[in-house]
Amino acid sequence: MILNLLTNAFFAVNEKKRQNPENYNPTVAISTRKTGNQVEIRVNDNGNGIPQSAIDKIFQPFFTTKPTGQGTGLGLSLSYDIVTKGHGGQLKVEKHDTNGTTFIIEIPIQSL
Ligand SMILES: Nc1ncnc2c1ncn2[C@@H]1O[C@H](COP(=O)(O)OP(=O)(O)OP(=O)(O)O)[C@@H](O)[C@H]1O
Ligand SMILES: [Mg+2]
């Protein structure tokens, strides 16, 4: 589940590096912290970001912008179901501009 977020992040930074081989340091970072009765996991990348036009669709099954054969578009929709239905948590995208993307998972501790 977190692996899909990381795979997405690595894909995004890889793409950006391909387009822009100099002056760009691909970075993917994951962090965790406890906030009250929740754990929060953040996955941040400095890839190309998600366009505003796609942001409402990324959690829908089969939405993908990847070339045919490279993405099913199921990663985020499955992750969303696991976090929300499986753990009663939330999956949000926070930053999604051209400087990159941050996904935030929040899970109530008592459901772990
Ligand atoms: N970190 C990210 N940076 C930029 N775009 C992203 C990122 N994560 C997701 N996206 C966008 O959201 C779309 C849906 O992501 P999702 O993980 O559901 O499917 P996918 O990665 O395309 O395919 P799959 O995960 O099934 O192999 C991606 O195709 C991409 O356009
Ligand atoms: Mg994916």
Averaged pLDDT: 96
What are the segments in which pLDDT stays under 50 over at least 5 consecutive residues? none
CATH superfamily: Histidine kinase-like ATPase, C-terminal domain
Shape: globular
Whole-number total of structural domains: 1
The major pleated sheet works out as: 4 strands, antiparallel
Number of strands: 4
Q: How many DSSP helices?
A: 2
How would you characterize the overall build of this protein?
By secondary structure, the chain is an alpha+beta fold. It has one domain (2-111): Heat Shock Protein 90, CATH 3.30.565.10. Helix content is 28%, strand content 25%. It has helices at residues 2-19, 75-87, and strands spanning 28-35, 38-45, 90-93, 101-108. Strands 1-2-4-3 form a four-stranded antiparallel β-sheet, covered by helices on one side. A hairpin with a 7-residue loop joins strand 3 (90-93) and strand 4 (101-108). It is globular, with a radius of gyration of 14 Å. The mean pLDDT is 96. Bound molecules: adenosine-5'-triphosphate and magnesium ion. Residues 4, 7-8, 71, 75 line the site of magnesium ion.
Please write out the topology.
Elements: H1 2-19, E1 28-35, E2 38-45, H2 75-87, E3 90-93, E4 101-108
Antiparallel strand pairs: 1-2, 2-4, 3-4
Residues 4, 7-8, 71, 75 line the site of magnesium ion.
How would you briefly describe this protein structure?
By secondary structure, the chain is of the alpha+beta class.
